[in-house]
Design a protein that fits this description.
296 residues; mainly beta; Neuraminidase; five-stranded antiparallel β-sheet; 2 helices; 3% helix
C-alpha cells in the first residue's frame, strides 16, 4: 500500500489493502469544503478561487452546482438536510432552502462585519457553529482584500438566530468538528497568512460561554485545515502530505498519503465509509474500514 503509512497497529485495521486512493476529478484551483448528500448520491465542494461550488456524483461526474458562489469555502448540512455555507466574498454564513432560496444566518457581530467565515458545523440542538479567520479578506485569491473589523473567532448561532462568541484564543481558527457525543469541539488553528505562526489543533470542552481549550496535536508537515471524526472519535485531519488519523488521545496512528496538499475531508458513500478528500487541484476518495460520525 504505497498510499498509506502506519504509525500504530490500530491503524492497520482502518485501511483496506485492495481499496485504492482514487482521483475522481482534477483541474481546479483550490478545492475545499466537501459535504456529502446521501439522498442525492452526490458530493458538493468548493473551488474557491474560481468562485464556484461543484457537484460530483458517481453517475455523472463533475457539474457546476452554483456559480458565482461568493467565493464559498466550507459547507455542511443542517438537521433538515439543507446546505449551510461559508462565503468569503459576502463575509457571511448562509442556508440554501429546499426551494433554492438563500437565507443569511450571520454576516456580522456587534455592529461589525464578519471577516471571512471558513468552516461550519451543526450541533444536535440545531445551533450552527462557524470559524471566522481572515483568509478571504487578506488577499484577492480567495475573495477580496478588505479591512479586518473583528478578531478571528469561532461563533455559535442558536436556532432562534442569536449569535455568541465561543472561541477567542486562536490566531486563525479554521476547521471545526465535534466529538461523537458533542462534549468536545476540535478547532484547527492554521495561523495568520504570510507568517510563521504555530499551526496546531486544539480541543475544547463544550458548554456555556467562551470555551477554555488545550493543545491537542501539532502537525509538522504543512498545516491542519479541515477535519472530521469517525464514529469512534478518531480525528481525520488534513495535512501537507495527506490525511492524518489521530486517536482520541492525540496519538498519530497513520497517514493516507496524497500527492497534493490536502485542505479538507468528509465521510460519505453508502455507509459513510468513504473518505472524500479535497486537495489543491483535485478531488480524491478512499474506502475505509471506518464510518464517519453519522450526522451531519
Amino acid at each position: 500500500m504505497d498510499w498509506a503509512t502506519s504509525h500504530d497497529r490500530r491503524f492497520d485495521s482502518f485501511v483496506l489493502g485492495n481499496a485504492p486512493l482514487k482521483r475522481l476529478a482534477t483541474g481546479f484551483s483550490w478545492t475545499e469544503g466537501p459535504v456529502w448528500f446521501g439522498d442525492a448520491d452526490c458530493l458538493l465542494f468548493s473551488d474557491i478561487p474560481d468562485n464556484r461550488i461543484l457537484r460530483w456524483s458517481p453517475e455523472t461526474g463533475i457539474s457546476t452546482f452554483r456559480a458565482p458562489s461568493n467565493f464559498a469555502n466550507g459547507h455542511t448540512r443542517d438537521r433538515q438536510g439543507r446546505l449551510i455555507s461559508c462565503e468569503h466574498g459576502a463575509r457571511r454564513v448562509t442556508r440554501t432552502e429546499h426551494d433554492g432560496t438563500i437565507t443569511v444566518i450571520a454576516d456580522g457581530f456587534e455592529g461589525h462585519r464578519l471577516n471571512s467565515p471558513n468552516d461550519v458545523i451543526v450541533a444536535s440542538d440545531g445551533a450552527i457553529w462557524f470559524s471566522d479567520p481572515h483568509y478571504g479578506i487578506a488577499m484577492d485569491y480567495e475573495g477580496a482584500r478588505a479591512e479586518q473589523e473583528m478578531p478571528c473567532r469561532v461563533y455559535r448561532v442558536d436556532p432562534q438566530g442569536g449569535i455568541e462568541v465561543k472561541v477567542d484564543d486562536l490566531q486563525c481558527p479554521n476547521g471545526l468538528a465535534f466529538s461523537p457525543d458533542e462534549s468536545l469541539l476540535y478547532v484547527a488553528d492554521t495561523g495568520r497568512i504570510f507568517t510563521d505562526d504555530r499551526r496546531h489543533l486544539r480541543v475544547y470542552d463544550t458548554g456555556p460561554g467562551i470555551l477554555a481549550g488545550r493543545d491537542f496535536f501539532e502537525v509538522d508537515v504543512g498545516f491542519t485545515d479541515g477535519l472530521r471524526l469517525d464514529e469512534d472519535g478518531n480525528i481525520w485531519s488534513s495535512a501537507g502530505d495527506g490525511v492524518w488519523c489521530l486517536s482520541p488521545g492525540g496519538d498519530l496512528m497513520g497517514k493516507i498519503l496524497v500527492p497534493e496538499t490536502v485542505s479538507n475531508v468528509c465521510f460519505g458513500g453508502r455507509s459513510k465509509h468513504v473518505l472524500y478528500i479535497t486537495g489543491t487541484t483535485s478531488l480524491y476518495s478512499i474506502a475505509l474500514n471506518r464510518r464517519g460520525v453519522q450526522w451531519p
